[in-house]
């Protein structure tokens, strides 16, 4: 099982040679094609390694990270050295000085989940500074619990695809419904039903309006509206204005199920700020003709309309506003809780929305208790490292950043996920020691002092399951561990032994014991609850899968609609908060008490666009999961002369004298990268699209702001939170300019081994 789907692996005893998706999967992911050859790929970490400068100078800040050579070592020497460093940091600086953020997707599998493993390990040592929230849903994760009482329920208990296919007449999709993203589900998936559901909706006469800078964000017949990127909230306000001024809004619904509509309406109609959010006003910001906005609003009021917002729209500045305003628009239409109507968030972002949930808890590894209460918003990593003791605001609280001495990372790649890599590299020069567990020599591994070689899922037994999929899957090792790599669990167990906390970490169990234990504990729990009777572990393991029951045919918030007194939302008012007194009370200039239009810093109508006239969309890659298996066949096949493809409208290419297949330099005042040009009219003019995931490959590794020769868009993006409320990632959008690359074409080195030196050549000071 992978995050992008289930498969059977054919091997030659050392590596995977072919993969076969299950016959029950309606639309298997093309990303599976990256798996063959991945176990023994030349970028694998063979042995434990320590950075040369760390061995020579001992722990301490270093600007050599990312440019230094490594010394390979035996485990017997490596583990005591690392344990000694842990003892030093804990003794001199205490547990708060250890950052165990480790954000990242790692791999599917409930037990060998790298992030759970590192957190459990650090908890047995007395705790660590942690991160909260995600890059996926930074803004949503803070705003939606406040105004709707939950955020995860929006996905895991979303209106099912079957209900949408059957009941929705008009699907108004902000961000479209990009099928490429439904490849993926955290923890895996055994089916991909989105394509078929959209087909059934259209076959029934349903219509799809795709609002996106990219026409191919919705496949097949859809009406395409391409507003200026980042202006969706203005468009939603324009639609809301038509509803309110023409009396098309559902006042009975607003009265019974929401609070604060009156405050919002005064803003909408311009009574509070003198600016009516009319279709004409919206046209001036979005470029969408006012008459089209009026016509769409009237259609929405007449039909069973589902308003959906992709997650990308909240991964930009003021990202709190789009999901909040989308929900407000759906509330004005009165369809929340009605089959096929209402609001959806994340259809086409992840496979999960629209899939039926499993009605009971799933087995997971207990992470233990963290004795340190310090945390930071996940996307504040550079801020934290650069400003120890500095103050910041988030979600109504003002806090100070801890002083981090040791960074321990397992299962994520900050060079993939974080913005402004130049700033990140300066930040990563600050700690005294960085430990990274990785199967591959990713850029994060290259910036570590201690590099721990991990196995991949293909090299170990595990079990997988996820909230919205019926299958519990026995993931059986396909090949033996590569070279000297170890399961993260075994590494942590040995490290725990060195540090005198082995039993606390392992509870006396091997990984095989843990799998059996977690499964049996879960089996007894669900059997006692009388829901299902799963087979005993050995039977399950032989069988390979167990099919659970699911709650089919859900409509989001139908229980609330049926009886708002008995099933209130978990908001202060128990209703949808179109106005939130709590948020208003924080007094933030960048997030007030009701949904509102805030002009972004980086957009085509702003001042910055005079210097950098193209709007780059750094969306999720079609050809891989994030940065994972960037060296796989499907990912490599899309590259142009080795560079990540970047799409551009023909008019913008012509204006710059660029042709399809050219290598271009993409730049702004933060950094630059090379990319391979694809000229394509399926984009709005002045929009370019360069997906995330090409491994950062600096031309000059010793320069933190070096050009990336491979095409990682995060050398360009701004490291700035969504707002003082959520402080979420804003990586989706950035302004750039593009020119032809006329210099010599630098080699791609990202997927090679780093430089090694012999132990004997290290001069300890
Ligand atoms: N500009 C921009 N940036 C973005 C986004 C965007 O829209 N625009 N999107 C953001 C989003 S939504 C996300 S979720 C993040 C994703 O960011 P990440 O989740 O950090 O990216 P991955 O490439 O999935 O990193 C997972 C790493 O875990 C490693 N790994 C796999 N299995 C194991 C294992 O068993 N053990 C260990 N130790 N390691 C393992 C993989 O090799 C890989 O390097 O990126 C974010 N970044
Ligand atoms: N193939 C693949 N699928 C994935 C992932 C992956 O790495 N690869 N990652 C998974 C993860 S972790 C996550 S969190 C989700 C993320 O899900 P999303 O964040 O929703 O995915 P993106 O592809 O970044 O963006 C979706 C679309 O939004 C559109 N968009 C961007 N800006 C704007 C705008 O201002 N206005 C409008 N109307 N549209 C805009 C873009 O055209 C883009 O294609 O994807 C998941 N699915
Ligand atoms: Mo994500």
TrEMBL record:
It comes from the Bacteria. One of its GO terms (molecular function) is oxidoreductase activity. Coiled coil: none annotated. The keyword Metal-binding applies. Residues 21-42 are annotated as: Disordered. Residues 2-39 form the Molybdopterin oxidoreductase N-terminal domain. Keywords: Metal-binding, Molybdenum, Oxidoreductase. Residues 44-496 form the Molybdopterin oxidoreductase domain. Residues 614-731 form the Molybdopterin dinucleotide-binding domain. The keyword Oxidoreductase applies. Its cofactor is Mo-bis(molybdopterin guanine dinucleotide). Its EC number is 1.-.-.-. Belongs to the prokaryotic molybdopterin-containing oxidoreductase family. This is Biotin/methionine sulfoxide reductase. It comes from Rhodococcoides corynebacterioides.
């Amino acid at each position: 099982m992978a995050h992008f789907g289930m498969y059977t692996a054919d091997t030659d005893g050392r590596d995977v040679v072919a993969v076969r998706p299950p016959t029950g999967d309606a639309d298997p992911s093309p990303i599976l094609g990256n798996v063959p050859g991945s176990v023994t790929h030349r970028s694998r970490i063979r042995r434990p390694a320590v950075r040369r400068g760390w061995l020579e100078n001992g722990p301490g800040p270093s600007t050599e990270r990312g440019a230094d050579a490594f010394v390979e070592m035996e485990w017997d020497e490596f583990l005591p050295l690392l344990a000694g460093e842990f003892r030093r940091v804990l003794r001199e600086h205490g547990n708060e000085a250890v950052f165990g953020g480790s954000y990242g997707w790692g791999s599917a599998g409930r037990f060998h989940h790298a992030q759970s493993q590192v957190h459990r390990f650090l908890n047995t040592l007395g705790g660590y500074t942690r991160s909260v929230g995600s890059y996926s849903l930074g803004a949503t994760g803070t705003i939606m619990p406040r105004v709707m009482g939950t955020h995860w329920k929006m996905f895991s208990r979303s209106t099912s695809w079957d209900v949408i296919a059957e009941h929705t007449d008009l699907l108004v999709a902000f961000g479209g419904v990009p099928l490429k993203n439904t490849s993926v589900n955290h923890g895996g998936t055994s089916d991909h039903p989105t394509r078929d559901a959209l087909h059934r909706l259209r076959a029934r006469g349903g219509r799809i309006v795709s609002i996106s800078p990219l026409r191919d964000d919705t496949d097949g017949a859809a009406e395409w509206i391409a507003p200026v990127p980042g202006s969706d909230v203005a468009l939603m306000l324009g639609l809301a204005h038509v509803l309110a001024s023409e009396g098309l809004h559902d006042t009975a619904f607003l009265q019974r199920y929401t609070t604060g509509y009156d405050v919002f309406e005064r803003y909408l109609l311009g009574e509070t700020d003198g600016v009516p959010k009319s279709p004409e006003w919206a046209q001036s910001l979005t470029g969408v003709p006012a008459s089209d906005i009026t016509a769409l609003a009237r259609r929405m009021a007449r039909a069973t309309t589902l308003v959906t917002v992709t997650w990308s729209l909240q991964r930009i500045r003021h990202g709190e506003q789009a999901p909040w305003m989308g929900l407000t628009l759906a509330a004005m239409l009165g369809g929340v809780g009605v089959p096929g109507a209402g609001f959806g968030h994340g259809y086409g972002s992840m496979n999960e929305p629209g899939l039926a949930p499993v009605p009971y808890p799933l087995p997971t590894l207990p992470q233990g208790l963290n004795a340190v209460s310090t945390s930071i918003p996940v996307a504040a990593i550079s801020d934290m490292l650069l400003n120890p003791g500095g103050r910041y605001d988030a979600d109504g609280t003002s806090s100070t950043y801890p002083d981090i001495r040791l960074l321990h990372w397992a299962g994520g790649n900050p060079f993939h996920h974080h913005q402004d890599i130049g700033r990140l590299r300066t930040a990563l020069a600050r700690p005294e020691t960085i430990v990274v567990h990785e199967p591959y020599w990713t850029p994060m591994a290259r910036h570590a002092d201690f590099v721990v070689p991990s196995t991949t899922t293909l090299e170990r037994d595990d079990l997988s399951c996820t909230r919205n999929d019926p299958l519990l899957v026995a993931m059986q090792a396909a090949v033996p561990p590569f070279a000297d790599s170890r399961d993260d669990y075994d590494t942590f167990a040995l490290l725990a032994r060195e540090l005198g906390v082995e039993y606390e970490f392992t509870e006396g169990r091997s990984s095989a014991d843990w799998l059996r234990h977690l499964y049996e504990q879960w089996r007894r729990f669900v059997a006692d609850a009388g829901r299902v009777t799963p087979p005993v572990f050995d039977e399950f393991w032989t069988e390979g899968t167990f099919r659970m029951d699911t709650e089919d045919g859900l409509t989001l918030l139908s229980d609330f609609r049926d009886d708002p007194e008995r099933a209130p939302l978990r908001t202060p008012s128990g209703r949808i908060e179109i106005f939130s007194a709590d948020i208003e009370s924080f007094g933030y200039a960048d997030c007030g008490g009701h949904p509102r239009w805030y002009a972004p810093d980086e957009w085509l109508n702003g001042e910055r666009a005079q210097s950098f006239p193209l709007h780059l969309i750094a969306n999720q890659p079609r050809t891989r999961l994030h940065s994972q298996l960037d060296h796989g066949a499907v990912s490599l096949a899309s590259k142009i002369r080795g560079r990540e493809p970047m799409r551009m409208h023909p008019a913008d290419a012509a204006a710059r004298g660029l042709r399809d297949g050219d290598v271009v330099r993409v730049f702004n005042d933060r950094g630059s990268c090379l990319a391979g040009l694809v000229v394509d009219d399926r984009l709005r003019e002045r929009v370019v699209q360069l997906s995330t995931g090409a491994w950062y490959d600096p031309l000059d590794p010793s320069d933190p702001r070096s050009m990336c020769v491979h095409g990682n868009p995060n050398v360009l993006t701004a490291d700035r939170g969504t707002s003082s409320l959520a402080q979420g990632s804003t990586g989706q959008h950035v302004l750039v300019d593009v020119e032809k690359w006329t210099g010599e074409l630098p080699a791609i080195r990202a997927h090679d081994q780093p430089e090694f030196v012999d132990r004997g050549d290290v001069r300890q000071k």
